[in-house]
């Protein structure tokens, strides 16, 4: 009985919440809506915490990648530094891949801009880009029939 009622309630709530209000709800978790600068500072502070471990870094990154936004270069750099502090190069590369995927349809313009902004940090930390590793092209992919 409880399961049926909970299912109906979830369906009713799912129909009333639109896409824009979900994003607003995520941004309003702390009581008031925060500006973009405050949002950036909050996540920079989160990734810069002393004693942060790999699980907490992954949680912060997953939370950011689950939102309807592309992280700012400052947040990307803070995430890279946090991954480097716990000595997890794979996490740093996956973070770059996730940020690239979040660019969506604007990947041709937005991703090069992000790389330009974060390239000094990448060089400082010794983190290679996805393109340097060859991860941007599938290794065993067949040529497209349209390219023949």
UniProtKB/TrEMBL annotation:
GO terms for cellular component: mitochondrial inner membrane; respiratory chain complex IV. Pathway: Energy metabolism; oxidative phosphorylation. Keywords: Heme, Iron, Membrane, Metal-binding, Mitochondrion, Mitochondrion inner membrane, Transit peptide. InterPro entries: Cyt_c_oxidase_su5A/6, Cyt_c_oxidase_su5A/6_sf. It is found in: Mitochondrion inner membrane. GO terms for biological process: mitochondrial electron transport, cytochrome c to oxygen. One of its GO terms (molecular function) is metal ion binding. It comes from the Eukaryota. It is a peripheral membrane protein. Component of the cytochrome c oxidase (complex IV, CIV), a multisubunit enzyme composed of a catalytic core of 3 subunits and several supernumerary subunits. The complex exists as a monomer or a dimer and forms supercomplexes (SCs) in the inner mitochondrial membrane with ubiquinol-cytochrome c oxidoreductase (cytochrome b-c1 complex, complex III, CIII). Component of the cytochrome c oxidase, the last enzyme in the mitochondrial electron transport chain which drives oxidative phosphorylation. The respiratory chain contains 3 multisubunit complexes succinate dehydrogenase (complex II, CII), ubiquinol-cytochrome c oxidoreductase (cytochrome b-c1 complex, complex III, CIII) and cytochrome c oxidase (complex IV, CIV), that cooperate to transfer electrons derived from NADH and succinate to molecular oxygen, creating an electrochemical gradient over the inner membrane that drives transmembrane transport and the ATP synthase. Belongs to the cytochrome c oxidase subunit 5A family. PANTHER family: CYTOCHROME C OXIDASE POLYPEPTIDE (PTHR14200), CYTOCHROME C OXIDASE SUBUNIT 5A, MITOCHONDRIAL (PTHR14200:SF11). This is Cytochrome c oxidase subunit 5A, mitochondrial. It comes from Drosophila lebanonensis. The lineage of its organism: Eukaryota, Metazoa, Ecdysozoa, Arthropoda, Hexapoda.
């Amino acid at each position: 009985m409880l399961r049926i009622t909970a299912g109906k309630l979830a369906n009713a709530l799912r129909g009333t919440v639109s896409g824009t209000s979900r994003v607003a709800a995520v941004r309003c978790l702390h009581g008031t809506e925060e500006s973009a600068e405050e949002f950036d500072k909050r996540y920079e502070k989160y990734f810069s915490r002393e004693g942060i471990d790999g699980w907490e870094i992954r949680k912060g990154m997953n939370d950011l990648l689950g939102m309807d936004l592309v992280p700012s270069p400052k947040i990307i750099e803070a995430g890279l530094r946090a991954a480097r502090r716990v000595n997890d190069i794979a996490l740093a590369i996956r973070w770059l891949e996730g940020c690239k995927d979040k660019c969506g349809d604007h990947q041709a313009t937005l991703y090069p801009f992000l790389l330009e902004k974060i390239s000094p940090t990448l060089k400082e930390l010794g983190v290679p880009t996805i393109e340097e590793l060859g991860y941007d092209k599938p290794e065993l992919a067949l040529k497209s029939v349209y390219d023949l």
